[in-house]
C-alpha cells in the first residue's frame, strides 16, 4: 500500500507540473509513469504462471536440538527475474500439535531455481510436518503482487534420545513359562513338546530324558534337552495421556524412558513387546521387540499415534484387543515419569536413575 501511495503521489505531481508549466517533457514522463507499471504488472502475471514453490528439506531425520536447514525452493521457468518475493512456510510437530510460521524474503533468478533457507531446531521429538503456506511475488515497481503455485509437504523425524536402562529380571519372571509356538534358540527349557537338542549323558541328568533310540544308535547314553518357549515375556505399555495442565514436553520423557527399558530387556536377552493406544484410529496397537532396530520402528509408530487427553485404561484395553496374548509382567510408563508394574505404582523414573541404579522387575 505504501508503494502505491508513493507512486500515485509521484504521478499526480508529474502531471500537475506538466500542466502548470505546459511541458511536453513532463507530460511524457507522466505517460511513462502510467504505462510502465501496467507493463510491469502484465509481465509479473505472466511470470507467476511459470513459477512453482516447494518445501526444501535436504535431510529427513534429526536429533533434538540439532540444527536442520529448511526452506522453500522456487522454480522460475520464465526468463524474467523476480526482484521481490515473500514465502511463508508452516512447521508443525504432529505429536504436539502447536504450529509456527517462518517467513522468507528474497529474489528469484530467471530460468533457474532459487532456495531460501534457514536453520531450525526442535526441542521435542516427533514427526515435524513442513509445508509452504504461500509464496507471493511482486512486479518490478513493487506495486502489484501475485501468489504462485505451491506444491508438496515434507516430514522431519526428530528422534528421541536413545539410551539403555539397567534392568534386573528376577528368576521367577525369567523362568516363567508361557504357552507359545516360538522357542529360544540359545537356551534349553522344560517344554517336552519340543526338543532343543540331543546330547551325551552327563552326571545328574534324569533317566526320563534318555533318548533310547539315539543311545542304541550311538552305543552310548544320549539325553534330550527340551526347549524353552518364548512367550510375550514382558509387556510395556506407553501411556501417552497428557492432561490439560501438563506440558507436552513430558511426552519426550515417557517415550525415552520406555525405549530405555525395552533396550534393557533386549540386553538381558528377554525380548519384550510394546503396546500403546492410537488416538487417531482409536485402537490398541503393539509391536514385538526382537532387536534394537525394532525400537526405531516403534518410535515412528508412536509418533503417528499421537497423544490424548482422556484417561485410557490401557491394561484393560490391551486384554480386550489381544485376548489370546499372555505376558509374564506388565509395565506401564506414564508421561509424568511414573512406572507401574501389574497395575501397582512402583515409583518415579529419571534418566540418571535408569542409567545408574536401574529397576528390578
Evaluate the radius of gyration: 34 Å
Q: What oligomeric arrangement do these chains adopt? A: single chain
- Major β-sheet annotation: 6 strands, mixed
Straight-line N-to-C gap: 69 Å
Percent of residues in helices comes to 25-40%
Give the helix/strand class. Answer: alpha+beta
Order of helices and strands: HHEEEEEEEEEEEHEEHEEHEEHHEEEHE
Fold and architecture overview:
With about 350 residues, the protein is an alpha+beta fold. The chain is built from eight helices and 21 strands. It has helices spanning about 1-20, 25-50, 170-175, 210-220, 250-265, 295-305, 315-320, 350-355, and strands at about 50-55, 60-65, 70-75, 80-95, 100-110, 110-120, 125-140, 145, 150, 155-160, 165-170, 185-190, 190-200, 220-230, 235-240, 275-280, 285-290, 330-335, 340, 345-350, 360. Strands 2, 4, 5, 7, 8 and 10 form a six-stranded mixed β-sheet that branches. Strands 17-16-15-18-19-20 form a six-stranded mixed β-sheet, sandwiched between helices. A four-stranded mixed β-sheet has the order 6-3-1-9. α1 (about 1-20) packs antiparallel against α2 (about 25-50).
